[in-house]
Structure formats: C-alpha cells, structure tokens
Amino acid sequence: MRWGFSVPVVAAVAVAAGCGGGGAKPLSKPELIKRGDAICTKYRQKNQELNKSAPTKNPTDPSATDAQVKASAPILGKLADNLRAARSEFDDLEPPSDAASDWRNTLDDLDQLASKLDSAASAAREVDRQRVVNEYGEILRLNRRISTFEQDYGFKVCGSSG
What we know:
This protein is mainly α. It contains four helices and no strands.
C-alpha cells in the first residue's frame, strides 16, 4: 500500500525458530542470510504487486474517505496472508544456535504482526478508524522490531525498505 511498511516484512520476514526443519543441521550465518533474503525478495515482489491495487490514501489518513478505508481491508488481509506464507517458508530454515533465541522471538513477532494486520483489516471493513489507527501503531512497532533484528543480523533484503 503506498503506506510504508516493509513486509513484511511485510517482506517482513524473519524467521523460524530453532524448531525449523525438524532436527535439520543448522545453517551457517551466510547461508541463512542468503536463503532468508531469497524468501524476502519473493514476498517483497508480491507485496509490491499488491500495493498497486491499494487505495491512494492510507486508512489511517484522516482525509481518507470511508470507501478508501474499507477498500484497504482486502489489501491488509492479503498482506497478512503473504506474511504467514513467508513465515511458513522460514519454518524450514534452521538458524545457527547462537541466533536461535532471537529467531524464535522474531517468529513470535511475525505471528503477532500477521494478527495485527488481520485486526486492521477487520477494523477497516467496519470503518472503525480509531481501531485502524491503534492496530497500525502496533504493526509499525512490531515491524520496527523485526527489521532491527534482520538488519543487525546482516540480512540484505530482509529488514530493508527497498
């Protein structure tokens, strides 16, 4: 949406906890970054395509019409679906042991982010502007936390806004 999340991120992506791959050998940090960035690239492209059908105004914009707020609902829902699909792909990646805890925390954040996107979609469908604003605040907070991990860990695509 011409709204300024990185998805998932929203190529918001980050990653599956140390439970990925069912006992698979942990990946090296460079391999994890390479595979993670490939997943982020895939979903960033999907989200950029989705952005083309987004209303011209962010549903948190006070000047957005009720119709624009309502029209954002399916876009927010699809962003949540994309985020869940990316997260599922990350489930197959086994992070290095020194990153497992941060990985798990990020995975939890991704779950919360997808739920907040669903809640924002529901609020937009009901044109509950205050709830949309409240959910967006949480979406941005979670997205920032996820992006910080991704950038600090060394991902090139994940965590970047490009």
